[in-house]
Structure formats: C-alpha cells, structure tokens
Specification:
- Its EC number is 2.4.1.117.
- It is a single-pass membrane protein; Multi-pass membrane protein.
- There is one protein chain.
- The relative contact order is 0.10.
- The two termini are about 15 Å apart.
- The chain is built from 14 helices and nine strands.
- It is an alpha/beta fold.
- Helix 10 runs antiparallel to helix 13.
- The radius of gyration is 27 Å and the shape is elongated.
- Helix 2 links the parallel strand 1 and strand 2.
C-alpha cells in the first residue's frame, strides 16, 4: 500500500550555487563519530580539514559526534571547533555509532551528508568521487568499497576473512548486491536521509548495513567507490560482539522484509525517474517493468512447478500431480508477484489477493488439465516426456492469461480518486 508520505522528489543536480551564496550553509557535512579518541582526534580533523579546503569546491562542515566519551575527547573537540571555523562538535550521552549518525544527519541542513572513521583508514582522495554522484543527482547513497576489484587494501587475514564472510551472509540472507557494508566511508543525500533514517532501528555498528539494505530494497541507487584502505591495528572494536549484534540485525531485518512490515514505498522515486517506467506510445504506464518482473517470477514458478510435478508423479497419477504442483506453485507465484511485480507490501488485503490468485489458479488448472486430457485421448498412454512438453506449452498460455488477470483484476492500478483519498 502507498504510504501517506508520498514519494521522494525526482533526482536532480543539487543547487550548490545557491548553497555557496547562502552564508553558513554547507553543501557537505562530514560526521566523525568518536568515543575516547583524545589522542587521534586532533590529527584526524586537521588532516581532513586541510584536504577539504584544498580539494572540495563548495562550502563544507566537519561535525565531531562524541559518543559519551569519558576521556578528554570533548575538550579536544571543543578546541578544534574554536580553532577551525568549519568544525563543530556535538555531544551525545549514549554510545552508538548509528545513534550519532542518525542524530547529526537528521539535524543537518546540508544537502549531502557523509561520515568517516576517526582513524582515516580510507584514503581521502576518494572523498570527492564519493559525494560527486550525490551532488549531480545520479545517486542517492554512496559507499566506499574495500572489496571492489580495483581497491587497494592492507589488513590482516583475520579481518579480511570476517569482512568477506559477512558480505557473503548479507548476499545469501538479505539478497544484498552492494559489496561492502561496513567500510566507514559513506555518504547520503539529505532528502533521502530524512525519509530513510527513521526506518533504521539499529543504533550501533549494524546501522550501516540496515540503511543500505532498506535503500536497496526500495530501489534507491547506491554508488560504490573503490578505495585505498589501511587497517588500523589499534582499533578498539570488539569483533566478536559486533559480529553477534550484526547477525541479530540480519535476522531482524530479514524477518521485517519477509512480513512486509516496512513501508519502503515512501522511499521510491516518482514516475519517470526510472527509464523503465517512462511512457511509451501505446504502452500503459509501468507495463515494461511489470512484464520483466512477471517473467522472472514466472520462470522460477515454472521450474518449481515442474520439480513438484515430477516429485508427485512418482506416487500419484498425472492429474493429481499436476493439481498439487500447480496449487503450491500458484500460492508462491501470487505472493511473489504481489510484492515484486506489482509493488504491493504489507498484510492489507493479502488474503483477498491469495483468494483471487486461487481463482486464477483454477483457470490455469482447467487449461493444463484439459491439455493433459486431450493428450491422453489422442495417444492413449503418452510418455512422461510428452506430458511434460504439453504441460510446458499449456503453462505458457496460462502464464499470459495469469498476467492479464493479475494486472486488470487482482492488482489493478489505483485510480486517481482512490490515490487522492488514501493520501488524505
């Protein structure tokens, strides 16, 4: 269902010229979350400030976000803010990198928001390539990737193994396509952050991963920048605890995505921003994307159907095997098309959609069963291969009919009147 918040505006080049003229309004706000970093903070901030002053063509700000430090970090941060006009400090009374980023990013008026770790493990020459796609309007988020093929990384075998294993877990469990979730070098457009951050629950190290997964699932564009990265041997991160918390986060996010609890539609870009959704002469809006999605789901459903038919066929007759295989695959097909092809999320009317899908299933059953009956009438005792061939042809015809019924009856496009009413 469409959320009352509506869509994000279409991507466009940020009005950086206006921001340059506006006194005190930075184009880029770089946040450095710290906890007990009194020794390294001064060197880090001065180095970053010098780099931005020499290379970044627009106004910028560096925000030191202190996560309840118990040493002299707050005093060092205040001293840096007094020394450098582009530096500000912010104090939080609770720990958590995610909490610090959410708090500062939400309050910032800068159109581009970024963060990096205090150790500056990532080469700063990647900072401008990181934020440039956000300024130009090409992308919504940008991340530095240590696992890109052209990245140059120096770190121990243990950290390398953990990083790659974690990203394999994300790809296998959450179908993530980005390559590096935990590199402390990321940026996001301010308008996207205002919609996305309230949906991110984690306040610790899993914050990055959750933000990226939700953005990717909502169809936002994530730009990846290969980086040069040198491991900090004195890092205070508790690897075991962090890994445990991350796995809990993977389970929580995966469950939320599966049950449709997240209103990701509020993050989608409007019609026309995606070239696959542009109007074509004689083609209804959104048809091209729906056809592609339906075909992908249809291919997978057909494979599942054939596997189930072959399995059930060994213990029952062909008609019973066909009915059982078609029923089970139809339930999965309706659920997959509901979410992936037609973009319907949440539990509202889910049972109704499944009931309508069963009606469509009955039509497909009649078509495929009729084809089987006709085959048996014509040949008497057809081979298993002949049955499969006939069923494939019948299923192709049933698939076309299913798409038309899904689009026109089960998941019809809401009328303007209905959309306006739901928006209220």
């Amino acid at each position: 269902m469409r959320s009352p918040l509506g869509n994000l505006p279409a991507r466009q080049h940020l009005p950086v010229a206006d921001a340059t003229l506006a006194t005190g309004t930075p184009v880029l706000d770089v946040v450095i979350p710290v906890y007990n970093e009194e020794d390294d903070l001064g060197t880090c901030v001065r180095r970053l400030h010098a780099h931005l002053s020499a290379t970044f063509p627009y106004p910028f700000r560096i925000t030191v976000a202190d996560n309840a430090s118990t040493d002299l970090t707050p005093a060092v941060a205040k001293s840096l803010a007094d020394e450098l006009p582009e530096v500000v400090c912010f104090r939080l009374e609770q720990k958590g990198r995610g909490r610090a980023l959410r708090t500062v990013w939400t309050a910032s008026e800068a159109p581009v928001l970024a963060y990096m770790d205090v150790d500056l493990s990532t080469d700063l020459n990647a900072l401008l390539p990181l934020v440039a796609p956000l300024i130009s309007g090409h992308s919504d988020l940008a991340i530095g990737s240590r696992l890109a093929r052209s990245s140059r990384v120096v770190r121990g075998a243990k950290r390398e193994f953990i990083s790659r294993a974690y990203n394999l877990i994300l790809r296998g469990s959450l179908a993530a396509r980005f390559s590096d979730a935990q590199c402390g070098f990321k940026a996001i457009r301010g308008d996207v952050a205002q919609r996305l951050l309230p949906m991110v629950e984690d306040s610790g190290w899993f914050f990055d991963t959750e933000m990226l997964v939700l953005a990717e699932r909502a169809g936002l564009r994530i730009h990846e920048v290969p980086v040069d990265w040198v491991d900090d041997p004195d890092s205070s991160v508790d690897i075991v605890r962090t890994a445990t918390d991350d796995l809990r986060g993977v389970w929580r996010v995966g469950r939320a995505l599966t049950t449709g609890q997240l209103a990701l539609d509020r993050l989608r870009r409007p019609f026309g921003d995606d070239p696959r959704d542009r109007e074509l002469s004689g083609v209804p809006a959104g048809l091209a994307r729906q056809v592609v999605g339906f075909c992908v789901v249809g291919v997978l459903s057909t494979l599942v159907y054939l596997a189930l038919f072959s399995l059930f066929r060994t213990g029952t007759g062909s008609q019973v095997a066909n009915a059982l295989a078609l029923l089970l695959s139809a339930l999965g097909n309706t659920a997959a098309n509901r979410r992936l092809t037609f973009g319907v999320r949440g539990r509202d009317r889910a049972m109704r959609h499944q009931a309508q899908g069963l009606v469509v299933f009955a039509i497909g059953l009649a078509l495929t069963s009729g084809s089987l009956a006709a085959l048996h009438t014509a040949t008497g005792a057809p081979s298993h291969g002949s049955e499969v061939a006939v069923l494939v042809a019948a299923n192709l015809a049933a698939t076309v009919l299913r798409f038309l019924l899904f689009r026109a009856w089960v998941f019809p496009e809401p009328s303007p009147t209905t959309s306006d009413r739901s928006a209220r």
